[in-house]
Design brief:
The protein is of the alpha+beta class. The chain has helices at 3-16, 18-55, 72-79, 115-122, 143-146, 150-165, 231-239, 264-273, 281-324, 326-334, 339-384, 388-391, 401-427, 431-436; strands at 61-64, 84-93, 95-101, 104-108, 110-113, 127-128, 136-139, 185-192, 203-210, 224-227, 250-258, 278-280.
Length: 439
Amino acid sequence: MLFKDQLDFVTQHIKKNKLRVFMTILAATMGCAFLIVLASIGFGLQESLRNEILSNETVTKIQVYGDKQFTDDQVQEIKKIEHVETVLETISVNASAHSFIDDRDTTSTIVLTDMTDFEQVNGKLSEGTYPSKPNEIVVGYHFAQTLLNEADRNAIAEKSKKAEAEGTYYDGSEEGYKESLVGQTINLSLVPNTSTNEETEKMSYTIVGVMEKPSYDWMVDNTIHMDTAQKPALVENLSTLGEATGEELFYSEFNIFADTMENVKPILEKLKDGGYSVYSVTEQLDQMNVFFLVLKIGLIFVGTIAVLIASIGIFNTMTMAVTERTREIGVLKAIGASPKLIQRLFLMESTFIGFFGTLIAVIISYAISFAANAALPLILKAATGEEAFATNDITFSLIPWQLVVIAAAISVGVAMISGYRPARKATKIDVIQALRQEL
């Protein structure tokens, strides 16, 4: 029997029982769509959490923790490790910077780094360039916004009071310094956190660059970044307040940067073997991936139950198909059709139901996933009243091709298994009894 004839045999029965087959395909569609949409939540939440972690972290950064400080020899030794891009020392100043431009002022933190290494790992600025002279600095993205005068502070107080009465919050984004900061000179004094409102003499610096906007909307970055060459000048200035030599007000932190994300783990292992206490966000991602792997397997298992329920309908449809076509089966056997051929005919029919049910389910699942991702930020905004949710890139449902393949394999596989028993029953029909059956 030619394959074309086998297809004709199957399609004739489907056309003859359109409503029954349609309802069976619909049941298979619902089961498969439920599986895909349910599992897609696990994939979507994992993607959202992964993006959130990576957006706030440099994925190639390896943090060194503990009180251990690197010597110059250790720094050079680490730099010789294959795929290490740089070792960046970040020096935090335990003093606030009180900065002035005209009648405006702001308070911020100071961080000292080697600007050549800092440029290498930080990349592009939102405006300006990195310092090339001792008295040049880079400021945080919100530095201008936090530069306020008395009129700004009064306006913020009034708007905050009004927002509080309405149950919202005002962030002061409408006030601040509105001109470009690049090229501006600021006067800066230090206020040690160990003293009581005492300020050092003012020092002049030129702003040459502004950092990129932070990943999170709620973050306010007005940090001042200086080159480490400025440390002696800061120590000398702090010493005027009797803060010993000022050295105790500086705290160093070392970070190691790999050239690519793939090389972070090998570097981590070498550093740990060398006795260094290190951590990378990739370790957090590994732990997260294990958790979500278990979650996705659980969701797929629950979704498979819906497919198994739909398989009951396929089994009933195929059982009725065998019963209704007993005489046709008898004729096929009488003209020499083998049991394997008869079995194949009915398995083809159950596979057809599973295949088309899966195809429709995939289309429906993608539509539901798209609608859910579009509607979720609007729902969260309506529920919380926060505008940030409307602009956030939240992935609630994600359907990768791997999920489609898994769902299709489960759905079509269950359909074939459901049709196997009726197909086997068809092969055991007695030819004489089948031919005696009245039309």
